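Incident log, structure service

09:12 report received: a user says their structure output differs between two submissions of the same chain.
09:20 pulled the input from the user's history:
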Amino acid sequence: GLPSVEATPEEVVSEQLRALSEARLPRVFQLFSRARRAMIMESGRAQGGGGQLDPPPQEVQRRVRRMLDASCPGLIGHGSHEIVSGLTLDQGGDGRMPRWGCRVRVHTFHPDMYDTCDGGFLAAAAAAAPPPPPP
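09:34 re-ran on a clean worker, output below:
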């Protein structure tokens, strides 16, 4: 399953887009980079806590939705999408994971509405091991 070391960034982005289309926010969260997951988990929290102060799953999903709605309205639950451009950000190696960013056009279920997103949130990185599911 994704993410994995063997997965290409394109495969991870494809899975992210599928999860976004189906509005499966726990899966979207799982496919985010480790850094993005940490930002979501630690938002509004005092320093540290070692995972003991993690927000409840419903709050994590609210944060994911809020972030995505602000950056690309219509992405969650979209009807269809197309990747309009892609860029390798890092080939990986020397302890780094490969990264890839893309620009995505999503079409909602309203035929006259679409949005083009700079996919900072869709920058994919193959993970060394699958992250744990959100709490």
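09:41 both user submissions now match this output. Likely a transient worker issue. Closing.
09:42 reviewer note: The first helix runs from residue 9 to 21. Helices lie at 9-21, 25-31, 34-42, 57-71.
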